[in-house]
């Protein structure tokens, strides 16, 4: 009997695929795929149901085609529920079709059909969930690494001068990343002065200040100077109220002032040219005096 069910399904795959595509398209109006173009949606559905039948033809399970299909959906950002819902719909469509081919159906025959279809669909769902989850976790892991690298960048702006702009909240994990990037960057870029810009840090509490002080002290120990810039009035008031001592390294209210200090510390001087209007005005004054 199980082989007979297999033969009915495989011999009538075109009808089952047609019924499956119809139901999936009808359900699309109220689900997450409504924003996807019709062409992409239809082509994805056809590929999906074809790889399902390829899997059934090979005895069930996760074939190379089905595995590649799931990986591609992960990269495209399609949710796992698209796969599981599609397989559940395939289960219902297949059972309904097999039952429609028989006039008389008893409990034993119905049970055989359910068990046979379950032996196809359940292993595919289980393996797809594992495969999809593994691919998703790998993608999230790569994104987490990229975000960590971007969360504490050290930017060389001039020979021996680097800047680390910080944006957002600073927790213990991010503080560790800041410390590592800071020390590695100072050595890599041979930086004499590092400017830590906290303009984009919304709150500076005792913990944040402690992490910044630790980072500045670590920079000092390897022979460089750390300048804390971007101290807004409200942050300055908070630091004073908390009794935090930032006297061990320079602080400036803006990045421009901090950069000027960095130039001085690295033996450079700033020459400001007069504006053209000022030069013309000086000439006119000299002519009037003459």
TrEMBL record:
Coiled coil: none annotated. The keyword Cytoplasm does not apply. Gene3D superfamilies: Globins, STAS domain. GO terms for molecular function: heme binding; oxygen binding. Residues 151-262 form the STAS domain. Keywords: Phosphoprotein. InterPro entries: Bact_StressResp_Reg, Globin/Proto, RsbRA_N, STAS_dom, STAS_dom_sf. Pfam families: Rsbr_N (PF08678), STAS (PF01740). It comes from the Bacteria. PANTHER family: RSBT ANTAGONIST PROTEIN RSBS-RELATED (PTHR33745), RSBT CO-ANTAGONIST PROTEIN RSBRC (PTHR33745:SF3). This is Modulator protein RsbR. It comes from Halolactibacillus miurensis.
């Amino acid at each position: 009997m199980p082989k007979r069910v297999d033969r009915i399904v495989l011999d009538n795959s075109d009808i089952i695929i047609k019924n499956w595509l119809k139901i999936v398209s009808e359900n699309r109006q109220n689900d997450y795929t409504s924003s996807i173009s019709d062409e992409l949606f239809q082509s994805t559905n056809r590929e999906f149901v074809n790889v399902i039948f390829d899997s059934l033809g090979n005895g069930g399970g996760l074939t190379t085609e089905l595995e590649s299909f799931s990986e591609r959906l992960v990269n495209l950002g399609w949710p796992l529920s698209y796969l599981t819902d599609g397989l559940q719909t395939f289960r219902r469509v297949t059972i309904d079709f097999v039952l429609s081919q028989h006039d008389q159906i008893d409990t034993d025959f119905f049970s055989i059909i359910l068990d046979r279809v379950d032996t196809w669909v359940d292993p595919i769902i289980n393996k797809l969930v594992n495969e999809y989850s593994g691919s998703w976790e790998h993608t999230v892991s790569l994104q987490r690494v990229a975000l960590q690298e971007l969360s504490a960048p050290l930017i060389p702006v001039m020979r021996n001068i680097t800047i680390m702009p910080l944006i957002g909240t600073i927790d213990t994990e991010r503080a560790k990343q800041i410390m590592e990037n800071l020390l590695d960057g100072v050595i890599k870029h041979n930086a004499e002065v590092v400017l830590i810009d906290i303009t984009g840090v919304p709150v500076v509490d005792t913990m944040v200040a402690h992490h910044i002080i630790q980072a500045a002290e670590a920079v000092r120990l390897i022979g460089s100077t750390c300048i804390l810039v971007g101290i807004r009035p409200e942050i300055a008031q908070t630091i004073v109220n908390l009794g935090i001592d930032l006297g061990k390294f320079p602080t400036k209210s803006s990045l421009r002032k901090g950069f000027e200090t960095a130039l001085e510390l690295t033996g450079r001087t700033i020459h400001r040219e007069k504006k053209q209007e000022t030069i013309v005005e000086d000439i006119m004054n000299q002519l009037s005096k003459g």
